[in-house]
């Protein structure tokens, strides 16, 4: 590459990195984006997108078995795991190609290689053609995160898998253990359980989906168990004994240790930031538990150096990373963007049933000292949900009793990952209960439940 001087160099082309590069280029900056593996990062290639493709296959398979309920017939229902995986990888490849097109359109220079900071305003990049040094007025680190591996539970790709192995399985698990019931763990548990694996989920906390509202977690657990999953809460996996074709898991709960055999284990016990080998600490960047410490504008405290996305801490969500990328790009370009508000970022889990939430749970709102009003509305009271055959679900709202502020919204059921955005917009606009009550929701839609859950918080629900 002949020209190595840029206004901005972005290290990492995940959701935050590639969006930052594109937005900066739109604003007239000369931009390079360095990526060591795949454009789109983990999310697009090994996370959000391919997992949704897998889950969609499982959803269609599940619905095929329900054909009789809808007056339909379907015979010889089965699945081809290799074909499911091939479709998933194809979707990821299509999106990866889309980023190449966007970079070309916006004149972003894409460099495949491994980058590290090499002094103020300098990035050293190792490529298959050698090493070169880029100079830039500003640098964004967006290197993401990887699966956390606990001692004794390390993945081997054969008997014990991380999310990467679970995305491209070499076989269909017969008896599956999933360690961790956060979004990653419960999504894979849902996928493999739907396809017929005898699935056990172990969670060290007192409930599955522990970051969710307690009512949503409880409802989801009942649905998972109804589908045949075994849920072990307040349980720790102490060790895994591996032998040919099997793993013996040692569980500890209430001071007692039990064992059980599985043929496959998926470890989903969190993530760690990709901070190694980047020269961050040498540059004066503070790192706390594998994540870069930043201010509300993603500034590291080192002039001209920013960190966004998973490497910069929770919430570890692709859409948070993307908006941080836009915010930092606009800041660098001299605009005046608003900082990201973590409490107004929705979390979505694409298990069956889906789970989605934004803002404070009921317990967190109480802990924060709010006097609250809580509304709940069940899917069974919604005509569209019943007509769709999706009558199992719940919408819950939490309001500040004094001001009417929507403090939080929580959902479990069909399509709630699409519905939650209505409440996200409400929080962004600082909408009150009165404005939500006066909003006319179309009928028949599942979104009507969002209206009813608001009305219910004030004793005005119409259909329960």
UniProtKB/TrEMBL annotation:
Q: Which GO terms describe its molecular function?
A: dihydrolipoyl dehydrogenase (NADH) activity; flavin adenine dinucleotide binding
Q: Name one Pfam family in it.
A: Pyr_redox_dim
In short, the EC number is: 1.8.1.4
Keyword presence, Disulfide bond = yes
Primary enzyme class: oxidoreductase
Q: Where is the FAD/NAD(P)-binding domain?
A: 6-325
The UniProt entry annotates the active site at 443
Q: What is its main location?
A: cytoplasm
Q: Which InterPro entries match?
A: Class-I_Pyr_Nuc-Dis_Oxidored, FAD/NAD-bd_sf, FAD/NAD-binding_dom, FAD/NAD-linked_Rdtase_dimer_sf, Lipoamide_DH, Pyr_nuc-diS_OxRdtase, Pyr_nucl-diS_OxRdtase_dimer, Pyr_OxRdtase_I_AS
**Any idea which positions bind FAD?**
52, 310
Q: State the UniProt keywords alphabetically.
A: Cytoplasm, Disulfide bond, FAD, Flavoprotein, NAD, Nucleotide-binding, Oxidoreductase, Redox-active center
Give all residue intervals belonging to the Pyridine nucleotide-disulphide oxidoreductase dimerisation domain. 345-453
Ligand binding (NAD(+)): 180-187, 203, 270
Disulphides: 43-48
Q: Where in the cell is it found?
A: Cytoplasm
Cellular component (GO) terms are: cytoplasm
Cofactor(s) needed: FAD
The catalytic activity, as recorded, is: N(6)-[(R)-dihydrolipoyl]-L-lysyl-[protein] + NAD(+) = N(6)-[(R)-lipoyl]-L-lysyl-[protein] + NADH + H(+)
* GO BP, sorted A to Z: 2-oxoglutarate metabolic process
User: What binding details are noted for the cofactor?
Assistant: Binds 1 FAD per subunit.
What PANTHER family has UniProt attached to this entry? DIHYDROLIPOYL DEHYDROGENASE, DISULFIDE OXIDOREDUCTASE
The note filed under miscellaneous reads:
The active site is a redox-active disulfide bond.
Family according to the record: Belongs to the class-I pyridine nucleotide-disulfide oxidoreductase family.
- Protein name, as recorded: Dihydrolipoyl dehydrogenase
User: Which organism is this entry from?
Assistant: Celeribacter ethanolicus
């Amino acid at each position: 590459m002949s020209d190595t001087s840029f206004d901005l160099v972005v290290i990492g082309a995940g959701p935050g990195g590639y969006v930052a590069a594109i937005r900066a280029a739109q604003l007239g900056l000369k931009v390079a984006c360095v990526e060591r593996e795949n454009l789109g990062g983990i999310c697009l290639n090994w996370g959000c997108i391919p997992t949704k493709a897998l889950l969609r296959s499982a959803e269609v398979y599940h619905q095929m078995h329900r054909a009789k309920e809808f007056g339909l017939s379907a015979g010889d229902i089965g699945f081809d795991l290799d074909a499911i995986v091939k479709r998933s990888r194809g979707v990821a490849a299509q999106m990866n190609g889309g980023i190449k097109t966007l970079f070309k359109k916006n004149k972003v220079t894409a460099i495949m290689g491994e980058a590290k900071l090499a002094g103020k305003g300098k990035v050293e990049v190792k490529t298959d053609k050698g090493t070169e040094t880029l100079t830039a007025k500003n640098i964004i680190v967006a290197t993401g995160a990887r699966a956390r591996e606990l001692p004794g539970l390390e993945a081997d790709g054969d008997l014990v898998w991380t999310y990467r192995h679970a995305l491209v399985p070499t076989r269909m698990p017969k008896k599956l253990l999933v360690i961790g019931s956060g979004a990653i763990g419960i999504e894979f548990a849902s996928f493999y359980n739907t396809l017929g694996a005898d699935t056990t989920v172990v969670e060290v906390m007192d409930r599955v989906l522990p970051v969710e509202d307690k009512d949503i977690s409880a409802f989801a657990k009942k649905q998972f168990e109804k589908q045949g999953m075994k849920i072990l809460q307040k349980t720790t996996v102490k060790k895994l004994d591996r032998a040919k074709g099997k793993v013996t898991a040692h569980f500890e709960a209430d001071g007692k240790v039990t064992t059980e055999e599985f043929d496959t284990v998926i470890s989903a016990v969190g993530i760690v930031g990709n901070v190694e080998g980047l020269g961050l600490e040498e540059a004066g960047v503070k790192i706390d538990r594998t994540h870069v410490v930043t201010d509300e504008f993603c500034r590291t405290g080192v002039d001209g150096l920013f960190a966004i996305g998973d490497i910069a801490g929770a919430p570890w969500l692709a859409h948070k990373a993307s908006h941080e990328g836009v915010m930092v790009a606009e800041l660098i370009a001299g605009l005046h963007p608003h900082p990201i508000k973590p409490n107004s970022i929705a979390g979505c889990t694409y298990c069956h049933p889906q789970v989605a939430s934004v803002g404070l749970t009921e317990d967190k709102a109480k802990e924060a000292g709010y006097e609250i009003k809580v509304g709940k509305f069940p899917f069974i009271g919604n005509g569209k949900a019943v007509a769709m055959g999706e009558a199992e679900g719940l919408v819950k709202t939490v309001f500040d009793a004094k001001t009417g502020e929507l403090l939080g919204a929580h959902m479990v059921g069909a399509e709630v990952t699409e519905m939650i955005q209505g409440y996200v917009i409400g929080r962004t606009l600082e909408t009150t209960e009165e404005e939500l009550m006066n909003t006319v929701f179309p009928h028949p839609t599942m979104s009507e439940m969002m209206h009813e859950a608001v009305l219910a918080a004030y004793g005005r629900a119409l259909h329960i």
